[in-house]
Amino acid sequence: MPSAPTDSLELPYTGRPQVTLAVTRGAGRLMGDLGFVSLLEVRLPNGRRADVMALGPRGEIAICEVKSSIEDFRTDQKWGDYLPYCDAYYFAVAPEFPIGVLPDEPGLIVADGFGGAVVRPAAPSPLAPARRKSLTLAFARLAALRAAAV
């Protein structure tokens, strides 16, 4: 167990679940700032689960995969499975994450619990119209189901 901070300016210990929560929250807020609406934990047709899926003002779909640590990234090499279901794909990481270990192809978001910034834009990869329609309808249905449960 880490010891308590000795200096009042030190940050308290934050474990992997707290980092994941903060980065997810910040990435979702950033998507909102960019004009997107987002849902968390979205199951895709291939069975994968997107950490953040966002729908843009022109119907574009972005997926953000949150990586809380190097170990999380290294043990989870399925990021290519998300590409057929979005126009733009991003890794979202905390400010202290060593971004040099990440591949160059996806976009990159650095985020904390308050917001985030796009460090590297995602390469656009437009979805086929039929897939976009299917994903948009599924997104809308999921959002409505979640809103009804509130």
Keywords:
alpha/beta, 30% helix, six-stranded mixed β-sheet, 150 residues
Task: Briefly summarize what is shown.
This protein has 150 residues and is an alpha/beta fold. 30% of the residues lie in helices and 26% in strands.
Helix and strand topology:
Elements: H1 16-33, E1 37-43, E2 49-55, E3 61-67, H2 70-75, E4 88-93, E5 107-112, E6 115-120, H3 129-149
Describe the structure.
With 150 residues, this protein is an alpha/beta fold. The protein has three helices and six strands. It has a six-stranded mixed β-sheet. The chain is globular.
SS-based class: alpha/beta
Shape: globular
Number of strands: 6
Task: Report helical residue fraction.
Answer: 25-40%
Q: What is the string of helix and strand elements?
A: HEEEHEEEH
Major sheet: arrangement of strands = 1-2-3-4-5-6
Largest sheet: 6 strands, mixed
Work out the oligomeric state of the chains in this entry. single chain
Mean pLDDT: 90
Q: How many distinct helices?
A: 3
Taking pLDDT < 50 over at least 5 consecutive residues as the criterion, the unreliable ranges are 1-13
How big is the Rg?
16 Å
User: Strand fraction band?
Assistant: 25-35%
Task: Give the terminus-to-terminus CA distance.
Answer: 37 Å
